[in-house]
What does this fold into?
Amino acid sequence: MGKYFVTPASRQTNCGRFQATFAVQRTQKNSSYCRVFRFDKTFASTEAAKIYAVTQGWVHALQCLD
It folds into this structure.
């Protein structure tokens, strides 16, 4: 994604499903940017949650480029 790094993650909820999270990071000269996004939506597997997280991260990073 060029200057942006998208880091997907997932965590297991109390009910046994998985919640998606991603971080968007950017470092440019003397400034840095890092935001963490968590979603209420849950998934049956950790893989599905991570796919959702990375997809949402790419969408967010592309919007930041505009």
